[in-house]
Design brief:
15 helices; single chain; alpha/beta; about 325 residues; 6-stranded mixed sheet; globular
Length: about 325
């Protein structure tokens, strides 16, 4: 199951469990903790009183009461004290404890806030990286749908250096695309069309000269190329679709139908999972009827990571989210 980063109010999520960013007393507080207690009603506080608190880095579970979820998992993250007191490991341990409880109680879906990033003062970019790493590692071995719920844009940020570097890369690509001579643009479009299967080329206005020419240009479908690449990389199906942040059911559709046409984010997610270099990623994308465009922020951001050999799909999705783009996966 994929990890999805969304904006919203975690108390409204219809999932098996939501995570509360609690304090060690478990008796409520400000921020997300207060919102969850208010939405759940007094029964939640009464049950929390019976638990005797919870140490930092650990988690406890209660019923959901008035919330639209079965359980609330109370994860106690650390207060930021400058980074020299093991705060990062404690936060990672907190996420792992929450995930272990969700697995123990057979949850199929789970929603997290960004733990410790509010009144506990944990730097948001560090908190986000720890959350994504812990959840991503868990999902490589488990089947669960997990949401990382960001209350608003002000609550979210990727590293300032990475953000600035990507922004500069986007600006450079935009400038190049808009200053490129018309003849060069035409040549680049023709090269892209030449890499598309026959049907896509015809739809784009360059019909084949005849039936024999059309037949000679038939090639692997997206599904066929994907399955071949999985075998060549020595991956199992599960390893591939989990690295791609893609649901098992969607992968089954792709495997069972050689003519299946995925969305562009799904096609690129598999290019990332297979760690394809840029030219091979373009080829796989073309089999689904798409191409990279220098006028698309989504395309340029994904290209930025591939060009640098960074195939961490969760880190790529952090950047896409920060720039208000669709996320990779399905």
């Amino acid at each position: 199951m994929p990890l999805k980063i969304l904006r919203g109010d975690i108390t409204t999520f219809r999932v098996d469990a939501i995570v509360n960013a609690a304090n060690s007393s478990l008796l409520g507080g400000g921020g997300v903790d207060g919102c969850i207690h208010r939405a759940a009603g007094p029964g939640l506080l009464e049950e929390c009183r019976t638990l005797g608190g919870c140490p930092t880095g650990s988690a406890r579970i209660t019923r959901g009461y008035r919330l639209p979820c079965r359980y609330v998992i109370h994860g106690v993250g650390p207060v930021w004290q400058g980074g020299g007191r093991g705060e990062e490991e404690l936060l990672a341990r907190c996420y792992r404890s929450c995930l272990a409880l969700a697995s123990e109680y057979r949850c199929r879906s789970l929603a997290f806030p960004l733990i410790s990033s509010g009144i506990f003062g944990f730097p948001k970019d560090k908190a986000l990286r720890i959350a994504v790493d812990a959840i991503g590692e868990f999902l490589l071995g488990q089947e669960m749908e997990i949401f990382l719920v960001i209350f608003d844009k002000a609550s979210y940020q990727i590293g300032s250096r990475l953000f600035a570097d990507i922004a500069s890369y986007i600006d450079d690509r935009y400038a190049r695309a808009h200053s490129e001579p018309a003849a060069s643009q035409k040549a680049r479009r023709q090269a892209a069309l030449a890499s598309l299967p026959c049907a896509e080329a015809e739809a784009a206005g360059t019909p084949p000269a005849g039936l024999q020419d059309a037949l000679s240009r038939l090639d692997e479908s997206f599904s066929q190329m994907l399955l071949r690449k999985i075998d060549e990389k020595g991956l199992t199906d599960a390893q591939c679709y989990k690295k791609a942040n893609v649901d098992r059911k969607l992968f089954s559709k792709i495997r069972s139908d050689i003519h299946y046409r995925p969305s562009k984010p799904t096609a690129l997610a598999f290019a990332i999972a297979l760690e394809l270099p840029l030219e091979e990623a373009r080829d796989l994308l073309a089999r689904a009827g798409f191409a990279f465009s220098p006028a698309s922020k989504f395309d340029v951001i994904v290209e930025y990571f591939i060009a640098r050999g960074n195939y961490n799909i969760f880190e790529i999705n952090e950047a896409l989210f920060a720039f208000d783009q669709s996320l990779l996966g399905g």
